[in-house]
Amino acid sequence: MKKALLFCLLFSAASVNAQTEINILSFKNISDFQSYFHYTAGHMPLISGHRGGTTMGYPENCIATFENTLRHTPAFFEIDPRLTKDSVIVVMHDETLDRTTTGKGKVSDYTYAQLQQFRLKDPQGNVTNYNIPTLKEMLLWSKGKTILNLDHKDVPLAMTAQLLKECGNDMVMLTVHNAQQAKFYVDDNPGHMLSAFVLNKKSFDELEKAGVPWKNMIAYVGPTNKPENKELFDMLHEKGVMCMISAASSYDKLKDAGDRDAHYRETFTQGADILESDLPIEVAEAIKVLMQSSGEQQKFWLKMKVSYFVSLPGTT
Question: At the fourth CATH level, which superfamily is domain 24-307?
């Protein structure tokens, strides 16, 4: 009996104190942060996990999902802040709960406390043990580990800027859909890093006219590889701006893994610098052949051990 009890205690302790190693992005200051995303001819291909990089057992917009991705590759993450009925900023892509949680209806119809009764679902629709997180939780978790790119949904820009100040986390990227949004953020904090929609020359010219510093941004140029991208790539690269393609609505949807991988590689060979994907682990494997033995970004790639909870069968 004593031996059995000892075994249970040891196993329980191991489950609580289990550790894994993740790849992190480590910046000492804003200058390092901006340098990481500055275009140079010898830079490394970069990966952004769209909503974290979902896979079986790991829901979108969930810290556990981010850490799972970071076990396999350095990455930063696009996430989706939304407001609850009582004005708490949570992270949820859809306006409604139905697709990704056990709840139903609009996020904005629930208080934060009410949302805690629901659980997140993985991409296959399986219910997990994870709750809907707040943006504050994610911002505090990400410090010293990675970069979060906050998409703009229904949260006022000023409210987002205020929360960043409260969390003391300047190492955050902010998606902006136009020059006015970009100008608001850099006026609020000259160090803010932006992920700007630059889908055409008109958008490029509007950002230039607004006086938004090019060193403060990466540029999202669209979801597909196409010849017209070259003009944008050349203009943006001349300004030192990295260009990002998002495969979430395009190449990630291809049924054949070989086809997906070929398109992921082609994205970089055609001149893009960053690929955003629902499948960042697969992207990392596909582009290994394109990775240099050294590059400016590698000096910011470190390893960190993190603790995690292993739930036993029948205990969740």
Answer: Phosphatidylinositol (PI) phosphodiesterase (3.20.20.190)
